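Researcher: Here's a chain I'd like modeled. Treat it as a single chain, no partners, no ligands.
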Amino acid sequence: MLEIDARPMRLCLTLGALAELEAAFDVISLAELAERLAHLTAADIILVLAALTKGGGDAMSTTDLSAASIDPREAAAAVADAFRLALDA
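Model: Modeled as a single isolated chain. Structure tokens:
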């Protein structure tokens, strides 16, 4: 869960979100994606959030996310939590 524009948004890492991120970051494996995600820029976090909000059922575009009020530390923690919850099961 991440607060975006003072509204709680569910983030969910789905297979579709993983595929979207592989394409966005031009990687061919989950291992490469994991390596790429270890060094995220602010623009990267927006791409990841777009995929995760779509997976959570309330898709937001990168344009909308760029203009939204989002705490950067909370965003990074929420992204890490979404991956941890999906992959540590």
